[in-house]
From TrEMBL, chain A:
It is a peripheral membrane protein. Its main location: membrane. This is ABC transporter ATP-binding protein. GO terms for cellular component: plasma membrane. The gene is DppD. Residues 4-252 form the ABC transporter domain. The lineage of its organism: Bacteria, Pseudomonadati, Pseudomonadota, Alphaproteobacteria, Rhodobacterales. GO terms for biological process: transmembrane transport. Gene3D superfamilies: P-loop containing nucleotide triphosphate hydrolases.
UniProtKB/TrEMBL annotation, chain B:
Residues 4-239 form the ABC transporter domain. It comes from Primorskyibacter flagellatus. GO terms for biological process: transmembrane transport. GO terms for molecular function: ATP binding; ATP hydrolysis activity. This is ABC transporter ATP-binding protein. PANTHER family: D,D-DIPEPTIDE TRANSPORT ATP-BINDING PROTEIN DDPF-RELATED, TRANSPORT ATP-BINDING PROTEIN. The gene is DppF. It comes from the Bacteria. Keywords: ATP-binding, Nucleotide-binding, Transport. It holds the Pfam family ABC_tran. Belongs to the ABC transporter superfamily.
Length: 275, 251
């Protein structure tokens, strides 16, 4: 059975000009695998991720014909029921540690909070937190444990964030641009950590990113989103065979170390893609 | 044109001392585009900030046309050297219109024809006059970065210091902004010093580049070296490999 089944997911925000649908009928299933969701800002990829965790910010509304996680229906859960799932069975790594860590709380305390909220005793939570910091390749876990977020570099902060999300060993991790704020070598290290967790713990991973090339080298499958819709679904290994002009355009507009195309091809958006 | 010799930048807070830049030298010729690549914390942005007078230099010299720069920098320095920052969401005042953002440097430097200059700067970066009285929140990321470029260009500088100018932007918008920077350099004979973590962007934009790690200059390469993968140090090789994408561990 698949870990997550999504059918016809829609996310709508009311605006002065009537409701605006930012996710428009997204369907997919996720097993214990790495699924990439790729798209540019405004494509609805992050809202898709948030809706899966019941985190659609009000007054936005998420609806779906089917939304089931490990066999149980997620639609119509109460806030309390969501809280018992989130952080424990499913969690989310946000894009930027600068904005998603609490700036006035030491990192260790934030890590422990995730466990303490779900009832783990303090001493055990502390040990698990330190272990997790070590698992995400932080060299001096004791120091990072005591440090405030501003005392960490971007890469360290993001690792601390990933540690926080994984300390409760969730079944489903939604990583929303987890490495975009990081430099390439660290990016690869962080991906390796995620990769290992998927392989070792059999976790399902939804990797949301704007970086088509990175996603296709990391994930098993890729959904390409444009204007709230999935315009193409691909096996990651078959990216070069992408059919949709948007996917092809995204691939082409990246500068390459070897290429010398000047000017770079830009993306001509076709109104028909959004239909 | 721009000469940095044995630059050192040290930040102190209490007993802690962070040597962000440790003896970096670089020379940029007129009309050249020079890249600095490195990881977070390598000191690459600090080098730019030190040139601009935004970071304290503890040792070394920064020379513009052979003349040592005064600290704090004089207004005429900023006429010649302007900086574009990484995050257009953070570098534009949220309650200033585009017009206000562009007028301020003109007022500070007592430029004439302000109205026309603003109109020219906007059209140079591919924004119409319709953008002039908008606030940053009414602009997309790419449009904001264009405004940031326009603000830097409005003083008609010779050198632009570009601190990750496209890393906050979507790939298709990045292509547009890179094309814009490319065109402006060709049209105006500008000199660029560009900092980025993205080797592909640097290779696209810069003829020469320096790789930095932990505040040290690891090596200097030309664009051709990069294309031929002629990296002399293991660190640069690692960078090159990492930019090729994720490779699964052999198990």
């Amino acid at each position: 059975m698949s870990l997550l089944e999504v059918e016809n997911l829609r996310v709508t925000f009311p605006t002065r000009h009537g409701p605006s649908e930012v996710v428009r009928g997204v369907s997919f299933t996720l097993g214990r695998e790495r699924l990439g969701i790729v798209g540019e800002s405004g494509s609805g990829k992050s809202q898709t991720g948030r809706a899966l965790l019941g985190l659609t910010p009000p007054p936005g509304k998420a609806t779906a014909d089917r939304l089931s996680f490990d066999g149980s229906d997620l639609r119509g859960l109460s806030a309390r029921e969501w809280r018992s799932l989130r952080g424990q069975r499913m969690s989310m790594v946000m894009q930027d540690p600068k904005f998603s860590l609490n700036p006035v709380m030491p990192v260790g305390k934030q890590l422990m909070e995730a466990l303490r909220t779900h009832g783990t005793p303090r001493a055990q939570a502390k040990r698990a937190s330190l272990d997790m910091l070590e698992a995400v390749q932080i060299r001096d876990p004791e120091r990072v444990f005591r440090a405030y977020p501003h005392e960490l570099s971007g890469g360290m902060g993001q690792r601390a964030m990933i540690a926080m999300m994984l300390v409760s060993e969730p079944d489903l991790l939604i990583a929303d641009e987890p490495t975009s704020a990081l430099d390439v070598t660290i990016q690869i290290e962080v991906l390796r950590i995620l990769d290992r967790l998927v392989t070792d713990r059999g976790m399902g991973l939804i990797f949301i990113s704007h970086d088509l090339r990175l996603v296709s080298s990391f994930c098993d499958r890729v959904l390409v989103m444009y204007a709230g819709r999935v315009v193409e679904e691909l096996r990651a290994s078959e990216l070069h065979a992408a059919q949709h002009p948007y996917t092809r355009g995204l691939l082409n507009c990246l500068p390459q170390i070897d290429g010398d195309r000047r000017p770079l091809p830009t993306l001509d958006r076709d109104a028909a893609w959004a239909e | 044109m721009l000469d940095v010799r044995d630059l050192e930048v040290t930040f102190t807070s209490g007993a802690d001392e962070v040597r962000a830049v440790r003896g970096v030298s670089l020379t940029v010729q007129k009309g050249e585009s020079y890249g600095i690549v490195g990881e977070s914390g390598s000191g690459k942005s600090t080098v730019l900030r030190a040139i601009c007078g935004l970071a304290p230099t503890s040792a070394g010299h920064i020379l513009l046309d052979g003349k040592e720069l005064a600290t704090p920098r004089r207004p005429d320095f900023y006429r010649r050297v302007q900086m574009v920052f990484q995050d257009p969401y953070a570098s534009l005042h949220p309650r200033h219109t585009v017009d206000a953002v562009l007028s301020e440097p003109l007022a500070i430097h007592r430029f004439d024809r302000r109205d026309e200059r603003i109109a020219e700067a906007l059209s140079a970066v591919g924004l119409g006059q319709g953008f002039r009285f908008r606030y940053p929140h009414q602009l997309s990321g790419g449009q904001r970065q264009r405004v940031a470029v326009a603000r830097a260009l409005i003083l008609e500088p010779q050198i632009l210091l570009l601190d990750e100018p496209t890393s906050a932007l979507d790939a298709s918008i990045q292509a547009e902004v890179l094309n814009l920077l490319d065109r402006l350099r060709a049209e105006r004979g500008l000199t660029y010093v560009m900092v980025s973590h993205d080797l592909a962007v640097i290779s696209h934009m810069c003829e020469r580049l320096m790789v930095m790690e932990h505040g040290l200059a690891v090596e200097e390469l030309t664009r051709d070296d990069l294309r031929q993968r002629r990296a002399g140090t293991p660190y640069t090789q690692r960078l090159l490999k990492a930019s090729a994408g994720y490779t699964r561990e052999a198990t």
